[in-house]
Amino acid sequence: MADAPLDRIHIRDLLVRCILGIYPDERREKQDVIVNITLYADLRKACLSDDIDDTVDYKTIKKNVLHLVQQSEYFLVERLVERIAELALETAAVQRVDVSVDKPGALRFARSVAVEISRLREG
Questions:
Q1: Partners of 9 in the β-ladder
Q2: pTM metric for this prediction
Q3: Which CATH topology does 7-120 take?
Q4: CB within 8 A of 95, min separation 6: which ones?
């Protein structure tokens, strides 16, 4: 199955509050961030079996991401998206992950600023 096409599971618009930023006011109070995650995996077995054990447990990934982000106090959005990607890749079936984090109101006159990364399973 090494050459199998990778299917996608999307976790969209996960609203979380955390400490994030370099300025003193950003370090004092939690602010909203919006997390989007795309998990790439071969889902063919689950499509045929209709068995939860044959797919990616995205509820557990979501819970782990919520816990990570809520407890985090990173200075940079870049570090936060990297940690989320690392967490998602801990799930054996996930071969690639795309993560974006939006920080609403980070720039005046802009709805939000977002950082998006893609990471592949190594090895």
A1: 39
A2: 0.93
A3: GTP Cyclohydrolase I, domain 2 (3.30.1130)
A4: 6, 40, 41, 42, 120, 121
